[in-house]
Records
---
Amino acid sequence: MSPLHATTVRRRAPWGRTALTHAALVVCGVVFLIPFAWLLSTSLKADPQIFVFPPIWVPRPVLWRNYIEALKYIHFMTYLRNTVYVCTLVVLGTVVSSSLVAYSFSRLRWPGRDALFMIALATMMVPFQVTLIPLVILFERMGWIGSFRPLWVPAFLGIPFFIFLLRQFFFTIPQELSDAARIDGASELDIYARVILPLAKPALATVVLFAFMGAWNDFLGPLIFLSSESNYTLALGLQQFQSQHESQWAYLMAVSAVISLPLIVLFFFAQRTFIRGIALTGMKG
Amino acid sequence: MGAAAVTTRARQAHGGPVEITYWARHTGHEYEADLERVEEYNRSQNKVRVRPLPVGPNLEKLVTGIVTGTPPDVMTLGSDTMIELGWQGAFMPLEKMMAQRGIREQDYFPSCWRAGVINGRLYALAETADSYLLLYNKDAFREVGLDPERPPRTLAELDEYADRLTKYAPNGELERMGFVPWIMWDHSFMYGWLFGGEWYGTQARRVTPTDPAIVRSFEWQRTYARRYDINKIMSFQQGFGSYFSAMSPFYTGKVAMIVEGEWQVTFTKKYAPKLDWAATPMPPPPGGRLASSGGLVLFAIPVGSRHPEQAADFIAWYHTARRSGRTPLSDFNYAIHNIPTRRDAAAQERFMGDPRFRPFIEMFLRDEVHNEPSMPAVMLYTDEVDAAREQVIRFQKEPLQALRDVQAKVQREINRAFAYLRLPER
Amino acid sequence: MTTPTRRNLINGLLFASPFIAGLLVFTLYPVIASIYLGFCRYTILRSPQWIGAENYRILFTEDPLFWKSLCNTLYYTALALPLGLALALGLALLLHAGVRGIAAYRTLYFLPTIVPTVAVAILWLWVLNPEYGVLKAVLALVHLPSPGWLADPKWSKPGLVVMGLWGVGGTMIIFLAGLAGIPYQFYEAAAIDGANRFAQFRHITLPMLTPTIFFNLVIGLIGSFQYFTQVYIMTNGGPTHSTLFYALYLYQNAFRYLRMGYASAMAWLLFLIILGLTLLIHRTSARWVYYEGEAL
């Protein structure tokens, strides 16, 4: 995962190989696309047209107004505002705290480091179902139930998944860079901020993306910790399209599609860092 | 939360209306109707303001609320959840509070009242009810030469009709099934009662799935698996999918007779307006009896509620308020296509006057609706019976053996549960 | 302790302090509580009652569903994990080839991970439908019969594996990030030395990718052992417990049957299993994981 020499190389491959690659990509692309295409198709249908055989791909009529009605049916703007609020804080906290801890686990050598890392890994292995109740009791004693705090404060204290991810990435940056900076008298914080982080852009972009996505689609957390509808998030709003004996599939799909849009946009920006990476000349040696 | 604290708060709130929180089981359309009734209540007086929250069937939310000591002041929840939580002592007893507000047992359908009773005391009050009947497709009847005004009256007739109504495509695949006992979900409990059996002995605290009548009901279910080839049925069944409700194969004519609930009266209007159908009680075998099962949603006041008196006010208002001949209870049930739990509400023209809806209510009038057994571990019992039925229809186990296994497992669990609860026998 | 070592220790702890704080404040109590609850009978709504190792005894000797759910989970992991990793890696390699429209493809493969789980569940109930699902149509094109998928106890888990493969976008992205970090000079040097594409893959790509593979392997293992949401929504463990995964059974015990003590015991057993496997992978990792940046 070394970032130092990462570039996109447009190597002129033989014509045949490009065609083959394209073919494979297209086939896979179609396979991946079909379910999503059905999602969009369903979102524009009238309910009775959804579960018929043979399946109807192009709805007749095309109900664009499904989108408007679905968004009006729930307090979309409120949920959106709340979700953006929580996600922003979560991303901020995750990036800062997880990178700091990952730095400790990979760029510094100290006794107990690897043991602590194993503990971090281990916390991911305990199913949430059984820690939920004690955790809720804990939050209740702190008076945080009903506020957004249980949703974003833990993000500022390091998330093991991202600590792990960044640790792996940081390991691939040569020690010589750190050593050189240390000889020059830089503090660890300097090295962290000025040497390591800039080199870690692809990984950081990945963290931003995944952290945002996780918080964006989180259902259980908001359900348990929030206690008023004005605080509800988008994921909870989706539940409003299902009742005891009936579900409004078209609306559910429409809102799911709309909810996915910001993530797609975010993904677009995040992935540009993957191929570019950082081209650094003269840094090595 | 002692009575003193409650009274103090009530006094403190003397200045303005007391705000109480209400966690609603209802979501989507039903929540809209729920909101309406809440708003109507808030408008009708200025002592109590209800603040609703749509919570759905999510168990985690309910238990975490109770365990942290921050439950809502009032809640609605499904009957099975209510039984499971109620046995653990989650709710406040309601008899006194309800009696003070003019709620009397005789105003309710017996099964609806009983649904809220745990170990002899009232802990919840049913707000809406369901019942299940046999729906049949009159057009299909005509097609095979059956009289559409004469539905099956005995189980044997049902089997016979099912045979005639089942249609195969030229390639041997199923095109239409006359009847499938286990769609759209497991109805084993209902068939058990239909055959004359009992699932639970309250006095003895014993589960009785090995009741010979119940065993016979399982054998009967299995005859369908045998006669029509279970693999074909399973494939056919997937064809109408398990889309967790709404899209019934009954609409498309894939199944000619089906066990379904009263909400279908409204849904068929929406999804299959041209379908000519009617409902009839599920016909019993000889030695059996008319029986229906039915879910309900109930009001309850959780232990730890900060304003139980105001919560009781809200509940009572829903059940008894009157304006221009209608009650909130009847309005709400009408809005979400369920059956009112009170006799006076159910007697209204808009319910009884609807020829399709009427048979569903009549089950309550004749007290033929059965509830899930009131016992701890009811969820386990339901799941185990469902699993047993699956095993039986796939010929993995004999009915008696499957039910014996259920008995062993669930009885063990109940014994432990009662030991843990250390309740006196009732 | 020498001064540099002491300084390192202080720095190490300082940088790790957010995590340590989180551990002490938010993790310690729930962990200890749930370990304790594993030795109790606890219905959440009443006080826990100490029963010693009774839960564990029941799990091992009286509960066939414990073994069934464990087997289901192992089966799924054995299928889904290697297939998922291979597919993710394959797609990443395809995308890394620098073709036109790469951004579009990448978004396409990542799309499934973005869609809310409820929508995914419904989509796949439709795709896997043995009567008129898309999968049946596709198989028919190549003259293959279509099994009953989620209706058939023998095919329900493979069906879920197929659905899981649709979601490899996340893993693929991480592989892409890893691939992006391999110096192209290595490939050029190898090409000059006469190495063909396969040799390049074997001797450059694969070794340089091992830190990423290690990450995806461990994360994938932890994830598939806790596979829950999809079966909760789609099958609820059926038919005939064929999709009763360990985490689902755990959830049912915790929140449906209110046997939280029993569920806690299940959770800690699962923890031990995952921990054991992860340690195994970690032990062997020294032999096959290659970190260019540091001699560990």
---
Amino acid sequence: MSDLEFNDLNVWFGEDHDRVDAVRNASFTVPSGASFGLVGESGSGKSTILRALVGLIPTWSGSIRVGGVELGKKRARGFFKDVQMVFQDPYASLHPRHSVDAVLGETLKLHGFDDIDRRIGKLLADVGLGPAFRFRYPHQLSGGQRQRVAVARALAPEPSVLLLDEPTSALDVSVQAEVLNLLADLRQQRQLTYLMVSHNLAVVAHMCDEIAVMQNGEIVEVMGVKEMRALQPVHPYTRHLLESSMGYKPVEDLAAVK
Amino acid sequence: MSPLLDIENLRVTFPTRQGEFEAVRGVSFTLGRERLGIVGESGSGKSMTGRAILRLIRPPGRIEADRMELDGRDMLGMSEKQMQGVRGQKISMVMQDPKFSLNPVMRIGEQIIEIYRFHTKAPRKAAWAKAIEMLEAVSIRDPERVMRAYPHEMSGGMGQRIMIAMMLVTEPEILIADEPTSALDVSVQSSVLTIIDKLVRERGMGLIFISHDLNLVASFCDRVLIMYAGRIVEVCEAGKLHEATHPYTRGLLNSLPRLDAPQHRLQALTRDPAWSLDPSVSGRK
């Protein structure tokens, strides 16, 4: 089990006057076994935090600790065994010409497992796909099934931390319910730590215990799910987000909206 | 009052190697001066219905209907030329993502002026003034600057408002909005919807609002058609959507996580094959 600790995390792109500060002084902790949500609009820096954590963005400063170990510029091989990511769009994150078997087999091999055959069968069963899916290609799967394969791939190295980047936003609501249930079950069975990014507050409230609201690269509010459900945010931006997610309400001052 | 649009037994068929595939199977509805929502999952035929109304299905796809009338005029018998007078002028469509529906290499002003002059043959100067007026109507500050800008300089919400301005500049009678806010952030979403709502009410237009978001449709529209597998399974008043009775509608509603009512597990939708066999419910008034 691993807890996550972010301290004064800054992430930027470009240099000098082209420099864009995507994340500014973000500090939060995710206890081991907890589920933490990052919400905000597009461009608020929520996905950037995940990408910096897994090492997809080299330009960051501050400190990130996983299980008490400070991360350096390079990630050790063991890191990827411990931290895995599920991406937003299962239509883009699976190789179109690799079968499910190849996708899972490759991951297992890279992480040095030897009983690959047995593990693939087990992984598929764990995410609710039968053995019949093993030799299928992504185009033979529905969106929900693809996302299950993506989850299976993330679980292959037996990680303790799962990073979920909008795992259901490309799916229909009925399929979303299935995938969210699956993720909730897996967390319980394997005592996983989740760090989840979403723009859908209802989804985050359902999945997470604690939520950080981001705006323009900064965390404006960290709150528990209870406060959120009671609609008692402190920051006006959080209130604005909550209100907009409750359905359509006419905006009075249109000129004030960007 | 006679309806703006009257559709009976609409079918959209595509030939495939496995035989004919019917994307829309016998859909009937009318549209008055109201906000009509069409909801359903991906693949339920809701977008195909919207496209079929504008006859935007390319061969080998086929559109068939017992009746498809716009203001009492038969649309299926119209020539392609006559249809061009309908598209954009009588019926406009706003698509999902402004990034793909605006021409990236043409200034925004030019695009709005082009569509206006195509339909009205107005002089350039009048068209320019009209375009500015429309951009103001969709609450864009500094419309002069936006007219000279290219689409990539605009944010998603601005882009979608520009699309709406462009679609309404010809003062159509019907607006078809196909997931107009799905690509936008929630806070921008309400401002775009407010603009659509205001224009539709002020101009007495009919609106077909296609969406997969049940809560949004329930709070925004007057009447809702729920589609499943190419058919309408239920028609209800938008305000009473949460009292819907069809198991499919109930299933969709129950599978949504809710902020105000925490659940331990979400209800997954179990599909009954009988749903796709039931005859389509008529949405005609």
---
Amino acid sequence: MTPDRLAALAMFAVLMVSLFWLVRWVRQSLSWRPVWDRFRREPLALAGLAFILLLVSVAILAPLLPLRDPNHGYYELLPLNGRPLPPGATFLLGSDANGRDLLSRTLWGARVSLIIGCLANFSALALGISLGSVAAYFGGWMDMVLMRFTDIMMAFPVVLFSIALIGILYSSGLHGNLLVIAAVIALFYWTAVARIVRAQVLSIKEKEFVEAARALGTHPIRILAKHIFPHLMPIIIVYGTIGIATTITVESILSFIGIGVQPPTADWGVMVNEGVTFMQIAPWLVIVPGLMILLTVLAFNLLGDGLRDALDPRERALFRGAIGGVAAGGGGLAMGQRATLEPGVEVTVPGTFEVEEASG
Amino acid sequence: MKRRPTAWLAVMAAGTILLPACANTTPTGGETPTSGGTLTISFKDDLKTLDPAIGYDTDSWSIERQIYNGLLDYDGFTTNLKADIAEKMPVITNDGKTYTFKIRKGVKFSNGREVTADDFKYSWERMLDPKTNGPMTGGPFWGVLSGSADFFNGKATSISGIKVLDPNTLEVDLDSPNQSFLNIVAMPFGFVVPKEAVAAAGTDFAHKPMGTGPFVLDKWTAGQLIVLKKNPSYFGTKPYLNEVDAQIGVTPEVAILRMQSGQMDLPQPDINIPSAQYVQLSADPKWKNRIVSTPNVDIWYLAMNPNMKPFDKVEVRKAFNYAINKGSQAKILAGRAVINNGIQAPPMPGYVPNYNPLGLDANGQNVQKAKDLLAQAGYGPGKPFPPQTLVYTKSNADADREAAAVQQDLAAIGVTVNLQGLAFSAFLDVTGKPNTTALSYNGWIQDFPDPSDFIDPILTCSAANVTANGSNVAFYCNKTADALADKARGDTNGTERLNLYKQFQDVVAGQDFPWVPMYSTVEANISSTRVHGYHLHPVWPLIVTSIWVTGAAASASAS
């Protein structure tokens, strides 16, 4: 067994075990149990979750699956005029014009998209949460500077700026590097997170338990980390999920226009790009990777939506349909922290009381 | 043609093979030509110039050919030369070193003035003048003219080898006999231009051209549209068309879509139909009969620089010759390529059909031999082959895929190759500098249909002995082979000359291996159902004079 196969197997095992323990813990936790119960009744979210789990498993296990080499061109199987083979016995999903197996490329492409999507998303979250909460908590000139910087970053058109940035990186040979692409996407995406986190922290920091902590002389960083951060969990969970949909979309766009992942690496955006010229004679070259992008983004959005509803039933009742996403800002929030100093934590349906306080 | 990125066109030289599946003529159904109407064609990029002293690309030549004439031209759609502004073919004396041209009477520039021998002396000296700064300055092709060296280095103000004996007689003296001189005269660089129009245009003759041709430039809106109108004072057979509109900024793909919806007559004439669309159109009963195709006079090859490690070992270069699957390359080009193991293109005199000195299989491969040779050269598990970079130009749609297939073939013999795709101008810079690029993917397309054009500029020592802008990209130099080329250049015995060129090919493709020759392409173009009499020419990218159109005007363009 080769090292990459072993690594794949190990990763898969770790994923399965941690999933098992996560579900177990959630079901036993007093404060999370209701969320779990509500989530279980969201069929669309469950479907999204199932698709994502399947996709992640396939992506991790790709080296172990009986697939052709995604980057090898089986020219000998193509007709003399090089016409791509349609889906059939030779290639289940057809081949591209280089005689490469579309099924294999699609599944290996899931790896690239998920890695970049998750990396970009988590870095954006980390950056957005730190800057957003620091700005809100300390206020004053720091808030001013950080938020104007955020505004400036938001004002840049993402794609155009990425083109410029990657153009600069081109000469250094760093273009096409997965980490670099993830970093470029994160560089833009964190701004949205920062704004929402700031709005959240602004309301939380006025709470009595924060004031109490401050009165005890707790270090501000500790207050942020121990007392405020747990209240941000719902946002982080929801944004962490829906954000992946966004980052995967941006990654596919960048790769499609040729500045993201570089050919011949199997990546959905790259595959759509390569397939476009052959669209009239081999539509599957565009349909298959395009559908994968669509389904993946949809799945993450459905899951994110379901999680938001589960985390905050009140908001669902109030806002469902009126507002897509979680952008409701200062309203609904919160549950989950296993009480340090906060008053009223004994509430077993977390979230509701926070909403009442925030809106009251 | 210099190293052009996109496949060019060319038919057969007289008496050589024509692929049976190819037709270079649109079926006309025996209709009678009708006069009038407008032909709409397209170009992806704006033309660089319409000054025949400057233009050295197929886009410019497509239009220049309609505006100007030279002393000689190709007869119909063959590679045989005939007199054009010359009254008849020149008289050659002095052991092939003196050519005497008689100028036809009554040939007029479109301003009405008659062409004389002085105009040719002026036009040629202008074209070669370092101040004009054209591609022929300094000696390519025309350096054979007596006195040109003094003219280039400023010692003389005119070229002594170009003499006007009387207004209708031009004498040209060469330093040494050159069998391809008449082909050189027929190139667009030999076109005649009126002195007064050049002076009136100031520095912008490129955009205000004037010649003797069947059409005159009516309008050129930069980046949008070029309009040619019929020249009423043209001395030859008048064209059928009243007008040619060239839409600029239209990619070949879009041009073909426009043609299918009736808005375009002739999608970019000097570029092959993009592969994906070729596969589609050639299977479409409505369009497959509108495709005209013919073998190109070109050769596509990997150049390996024998002066650079690890290609200094002949075993390595030979191993690469066994490694490349040329059949894959042909499939990438939608089957429009003929596997070629030599250095001459199929339609060229001197081409040896089925040339195969290494005994390669049908795909041009023998992978086991390649591995054996690398082992002989000392590479193996203990000493892996150093990673190489393959430099190629991204300027045509299939280039990335072609380079990737080469990468895959070389990986199969244990050679790691990184791909470096460059824009065409950057590619020319990098590959033209001596001993800078070890491995590159190149194409060579004819300037004129003579085998010397596939040897002198790309495989001789003098072509390797440059400081920049070289076209011998392998920087290959073998004195023995050079002697063969020198001998052949002025050889008046046709059979013996071709034999010398065949010997040259044996040295390059059977002994020294500076190249991996891969394939020669087949040109395929398409026209709308309005177009009649459209043929592919062996040398010119576009001939408009044989075309007539029927039915409603195609274009929705502003004209």
